[in-house]
Amino acid sequence: MADKKLSTFGQEVGRRSWAEPWKIKMVEPIRLPNKEERQRAMSAAGYNTFLLRSEDVYIDLLTDSGTNAMSDRQWAGLMMGDEAYAGSRNFYNLERVIQEYYGYPYIVPTHQGRGAEHLISQTVIKAGQYVPANMYFTTTRLHQELAGGIFVDVIVDNAHDPADLHPFKGNVDIEKLKSLIKKVGQANIAYVSLAGTVNMAGGQPVSMANVKELRTLCNGYGIKVFLDATRMVENAFFIKEREKGYENSSVANILKEFCSYTDGAWMSSKKDHLVNIGGWLAVNDQDLFDRLRNMVVVYEGLHTYGGMAGRDMEAVSIGIKEAVADENVRARIKQVQYLADLLMDWDIPIVKPVGGHGVFLDAGEFYPHIPQDQFPAQTLAAQLYLDSGVRGMERGVVSSGRDPETGKHRYPALELMRLAIPRRVYTQSHMDVTAEAIKEVYRHRDETLGLKMVYEPKYMRFFQARFEPIEKGAA
Which of 14, 43, 328, 349 is close enough to 365 for a disulfide, judged by CB 3.0 to 4.6 Å? Predict the structure, then answer.
C-alpha cells in the first residue's frame, strides 16, 4: 500500500505506507464458484446481479449499503438494546449523538433511508411542485414523484462528463436553479434536494462554498434545503482534501458546518454509520417535526423507534462516532482510491475524480459498440461476474427507468457500472483480484455483445428486471 504521493491530510510523507486503523477479530469464509457454476447462476438470475444469491458471489461490491463490518463496540452495543415499545433509552442516545454531530434539534428514526425519503416527500411536497436536485437518486426521485413532485436536475454540467476533473462535480448549478425559480415561481418549488457525494455521478462531492451560496439564494426566496446526508462523512473528507481553508479542520467539524446550511436531512445509516440497518430524518423546524413524527407512526413505527430495534439504534449511535474519526474515513477513501489507481494504470475508463464509496466504470467508453438500449453497464456487470465471481451493479439506463409521461427509456449521459466497496470488509488483496478481473474483461471487450430486457417491474426496475444475451447476428 505504499504511495509516493500519499499525504496525511495534506502532510507529505513520501513512500511510507499506511494501514487500516483496525485489526480483524473474526472472519467469514468466502468461496469462488467455478466457471460453470457462475454461468448457471448468472443465467438463473436473468443477467441481473441483484438477483444472484449471495452464496454464489465471491467478492461482493454490489453495494456499500448495510454490508459494512461493525466494530466490537457496536456489537457490544447490540447487547445494550432497550426493546421497550415506547421511550427506549437507545432512542435518546441516538437523538443526542445526531444533535451533537449533525446539529439538527429534532430527530425522527426510520427503518432505513428510503423510509425517511417517503416521510419528507409525503409531508412537504404538494402535487405539481418542482423538486430541483443535484442529480437524481433512484429511490429519492421515485418517492418525490409518487408524492406528486416533478424532479429537475440542477447539477453542474461537469457531473455528466466522466473524464472531467472538477473537484466538486456534485455542486448545484446556481444559475440553473435561479432560472427554474424564475420560470415556475418560488411557491412552486417544494424544496431543494441536495445530496452529498452524489451517487449517480460517481460519488462526487459538494463544496462548502456551493452549499453556502445555495443557502443564501434559498433564504432570499424562502425555499427550504433538505440534505441527503447518507454519505456526507465522505463529502466532508473531500472538502478537507480539496477546498482551501478546510485542510486543518476535522471531518466532524466540516460535517456539522455543512449541515448548518440546510433545513434538515435524511440518512441511510446503512452507509456512513457502519450498520446493517437503520436510518433517520432530522429537521430544524418544530412544526414540520410534529407532522413528520405523526407520519412516522403510520408508516414506520412509534416515534421513539421508527422501525428500528433498540439494539440497532445503539449500534447506529456508536457508528456515528466511529464514522467521523479522521483516520477511519481516510482509510475508507484510500481503499477506493487504491482500486481506482490500478484501473487507471491500465487505461480502463472510470469516472474521475474518484468518488468516496466506490469506483464507477464508464461502460459507454468500455463498450462503445454496444448501444445504450442494449444496456452496456448491465452487460459489464454480468461479464465481470462471469469472469471472476465479483459482483457490481448497473448505474445507467436501467437504473434511470422510464419517463412517466412518455413511457420511454430515460437515457442518462452517464452509463456506469459501480463497484461499491463495503467499509472495513475487504483487504487490498481483494481489490487486486477485482482489478485484474476487470482488466481481463476489458481485454475481451470488442467481442462482447449487449443484452435485451425480457422482464421489467413497474418501479425501480434495476432491482428485479431480467435480461438475456443478444445472440451474434441478432442485433
Answer: 349
